Each structure stands twice: as C-alpha cells, then as structure tokens.
Amino acid sequence: MSLKTAILTETKLSLENKIAEIESALADLQASIAGETKSSAGDKYETSREMIAQEQLKLSKQLSIHQQHLQIIRGIDDTEIYNYVKIGSVVTTNMGVFFIAVSLGFITVADNKIALISSSSPIGNLMMGKKSGDKFNFNQTQYEILTVA
What we know:
By secondary structure, the chain is of the alpha+beta class. It has two domains: 3-74; 90-148, no CATH class. It is built from three helices and six strands. A six-stranded mixed β-sheet has the order 3-4-2-1-6-5. The protein is elongated and about 65 Å long. The model has no long low-confidence stretch (mean pLDDT 92).
C-alpha cells in the first residue's frame, strides 16, 4: 500500500467517524427536544430549547464541513502521481510530510507524521504549483520540497 493510499484510508476513516459522532449527537439533541415539556416556568423551557437549537446549528455546520471534506477525499485518485503540488499531493519537505487536501491536523501513517492541510491554508498556498527541488519561506523558515507524489 502506497503512502498516499494509507493517508487517504486513514483520513476517510477519521472523517467517517467524526460524521457518525456528530449524527449521533444531533439525534440525541432531537430526542432532548422531543422530551422537553412545557412547564409552568415557561422561560426556562424556552431557554432550554434555544440552547439545544444553538447546539444543533453548531453541530449541523460541523457535519456539513466534514461531509464536504469527505467528498474531497473520495475524489482523490490514490494511484495518480503528480509532478507538481496540487490537491491530492503528498509533499515531502525538509521540514516534514504534508498531504494537500483538507485541513485536519496531523495523522501518523507508517511511522510518518503527516500534516493534513488544505490548498488554501497559508503554507498550502505557498506550496501549490511547486515541484521537487523548489524552495519557499514560511514563518521565517526555509522549506525545500524533496518529493511530490
């Protein structure tokens, strides 16, 4: 299994787990709303419902973002090798390994710590279009692209 395939597999799994957790939390919130009964303390009832509604909105936004990220990941061909940095590239630099797709932090794959970044992140934007041997500066540090896959 190539490094790119392993990264894609791990990222898909992570996103699918996050989506399942959010969907479960939304179902729990929906059950909470259904279980709420209007009491004589009407303000408390309304406040509770509003807090639940705000939490639902926040979770719905997170769900939408994770679903979009999963779509991007599913659209990447793990067999394609790139000559220059673009979405779907695994970029090895003198400062670490980056996967250009979606911003999700770090994962460890085959003893490699991989930074998952989007092409629109500051460092991702600097890498876009570059090829092996190219250099760029980010946060007063010089990066050299060793390989692009």
